[in-house]
Amino acid sequence: EAGVAQSPRYKIIEKRQSVAFWCNPISGHATLYWYQQILGQGPKLLIQFQNNGVVDDSQLPKDRFSAERLKGVDSTLKIQPAKLEDSAVYLCASSLGRQISEAFFGQGTRLTVV
Amino acid sequence: AQSVTQLDSQVPVFEEAPVELRCNYSSSVSVYLFWYVQYPNQGLQLLLKYLSGSTLVKGINGFEAEFNKSQTSFHLRKPSVHISDTAEYFCAVKGTYKYIFGTGTRLKVLA
């Protein structure tokens, strides 16, 4: 079974530039998560989709971050404009969508904002 | 609301020694509990999970964890660690639909 795919693996941008990350979840997984992991911290949920609807985006900085999940499959996370404090690893995860389902994670995208 | 506390940010241990990584949680509803491991430059990989039933849960790579409802704990243990166990370990709690992760414990296995 193919895992969660993310691209790119690494990205370096200057502050105020924009950046986009892509995630392809495991086939058949209804739930998709985007997490932000700052160095030395645990993952923090940014947004959770159930199919193509948003379940939770309470910690998404909506003035600069946006995410979409077209057709309930792939998802993109965008930051515009980026700030220095956005430097982090952005993890995508997916699950079957039932309460007992565990999340499967991609390898993440390491973003450095200079 | 749920929360997870991992009190130990780093745990150094010698190879072949036992280890325990502590996790405490708080929740007003029933939860499911998970331990994930993260190797450098990798995503998170599930070690084990507690959903219901037996409070002692066995996972991959020889790890096990015990769910203690009265103490709201879910500590991770391994009787004999290997150098390859050096990684970051995250405890997570899932309530209705959202995963909440702890801040992680860095396990450093020394030769």
Features:
heterodimer, A: 114 residues, seven-stranded mixed sheet, four-stranded antiparallel sheet, 0% helix, globular, B: 111 residues, mainly beta, Immunoglobulin-like, six-stranded mixed sheet
Q: What's the topology here?
A:
The complex is a heterodimer of chains A (114) and B (111).
Chain A: E1 5-7, E2 10-13, E3 19-24, E4 31-37, E5 44-50, E6 53-56, E7 65-68, E8 75-79, E9 88-95, E10 104-105, E11 109-113
Parallel strand pairs in A: 2-11
Antiparallel strand pairs in A: 1-3, 3-8, 4-5, 4-9, 5-6, 7-8, 9-10, 9-11
Chain B: E1 3-5, E2 10-14, E3 19-21, E4 24-26, E5 32-38, E6 44-50, E7 56-58, E8 64-68, E9 73-78, E10 87-94, E11 99-101, E12 105-110
Structure characterization notes:
The complex is a heterodimer of chains A (114) and B (111). With 114 residues, chain A is mainly β. Chain A has one domain (5-101): Immunoglobulins (Immunoglobulin-like), CATH 2.60.40.10. Helix content of chain A is 0%, strand content 48%. In chain A, strand 5 (44-50) and strand 6 form a beta hairpin. Chain A is globular. With 111 residues, chain B is mostly beta strands. In chain B, strand 7 (56-58) and strand 8 (64-68) form a beta hairpin. The radius of gyration of chain B is 13 Å and the shape is globular. Chain B starts with a strand and ends with a strand. The chains are: A mainly beta (114), B mainly beta (111).
Which H/E pattern describes the elements of chain A?
EEEEEEEEEEE
Radius of gyration of chain B: 13 Å
Q: Approximately how much beta-strand content do the residues of chain A carry?
A: over 45%
The structural domain count of chain B equals 1
State the end-to-end CA separation of chain A.
Answer: 37 Å
The CATH fourth-level homologous superfamily of chain B: Immunoglobulins
Portion in strands of chain B: over 45%
Average predicted confidence as pLDDT of chain B: 92
Give the beta-strand count of chain B: 12
Helix/sheet category of chain A? mainly beta
Return the CATH class of chain B.
Answer: Mainly Beta
The second-level CATH architecture of chain B is Sandwich
Helix content of chain B: under 10%
